[in-house]
């Protein structure tokens, strides 16, 4: 009898060990939305998988949001309040070659703040951040690693004169826009490579009317009235090459640029009701896409790389097949949002997380949730106020041992180790 009891106890113990080791190798899928209000200094954090609100952060002004490539940090750029705040997303990945580990913690507002007049363009590359300030004669360069540790390691790089421009961070260098020497309030006239002491490196690159920038793969692009500047870096200083607009394009230029994820391409505006697809490696680099009405916002799909999306003022979300260079599906999502009026009026913005597309509807205080594969609306999330700018952070990874207990949506019941390094 005693032997049977002992045997049962050992079996139960072994089953428990097996269960805990299986749990220790769990694949976890976690996605979060960061949503800024149009008028209020408020940022809501929402679980993208079930729509639950996880946190609300009060900042100093209405914010535009930018995330780092790793997704570990979301920056809230508050132009009217002259400050940039940093939020730890609470989701961090650690690359191990054949798999990635995921650490999940609560999102939190970090102590690091960047102060300066009229913060504008934010650029992050390979863990390095460049924050531009339209009202300052210098840009601030810092690292994601330091921000996560609650430290501000920002160095300032001279940009000659205050202007509406951009800085792109590199190892030991930055590419900065060159202000118009006759009137710095006009658009920049070119781009320059500088070292971190502000010394000019090489020849300036002409880029009249510089406005708009994005990265895709190993190329960072700046858009100009004459074409694109393509920036690459191998082992030393960045190199800038000019890609002129194709002669087949109608007169125009792009001033808002986004970069493909998973495939190397760029997509930009080309007038109010057209987009241009740009493949920088092809001889015939430019393809024009006519939209049904004026565009409101566009975004690429980082999960399904061949798709991008554009929201148009008729209230429709349009799917673009980047390989075909055309709109392949459209679905009505909101009431019309006219592009007449102020450029910064509350209008929908797009984010993609997991198998879903999210479209903010600021005038109706909600976010529409679409199934990205079926391309139809499946639910909505109520958000007080005017949910406007939105970014998504997340992905899948393995959880190893150490008591990281998660439910099916990746909510952390015990704080996971918040490692400072991210892939």
From TrEMBL:
Residues 1-24 form the signal peptide. Residues 399-423 are annotated as: Disordered. Keywords: Signal. The keyword Transport does not apply. InterPro entries: AztD-like (IPR047697), Quinoprotein_ADH-like_sf (IPR011047). The keyword tRNA processing does not apply. Residues 404-423 have a biased composition (Basic and acidic residues). This is Uncharacterized protein.
